[in-house]
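I wish you would study the pair of lines that follows with an eye to the fold:

===
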Amino acid sequence: EMSASLVGSEMCIRDRLQIVAEAIKMDGGKKLEISGHTDDVGSERYNLGLSERRAAAVKAQLIEFGVPADRIVTRGFGKSQPRRTYSTNANEEERDEARKENRRAEMYLDF
C-alpha cells in the first residue's frame, strides 16, 4: 500500500511545515488549502482516497504545530492533476521519475 504519511527527507518536510505553521499563526486571517495528489498506479477510487489521506497527513502535522484546524481545508485530487506526464514509450526510469513527482501535497495560502 502506498503511504499517505510524511516520507522522504522527513526532517526537511517537518521543518518546512513548521515555517508554514508559524506564518499562518502570525496572521489570524490566513486560510490554507492543502491538495493531495497521486501517481497513475492504481484505481481512480484508491488514488482519490490516498490523495485525501495525504492532504490530511499534512493538515495533522500543521495542527500539531499549533495551526487551528478550522483554518485548513484539504482536498484530494487522486491522479487527475499530474505535475509531470510521460509517453507510453517512456523507459522505466522516466516513468518512475514522473510518478515520484506526481505523489505530492501542495499548499495554497490565502493572503
Observations:
- The mean pLDDT is 90.
- The CA atoms of residues 86 and 94 lie 7 Å apart.
- The helical segments are 10-26, 44-64, 92-102.
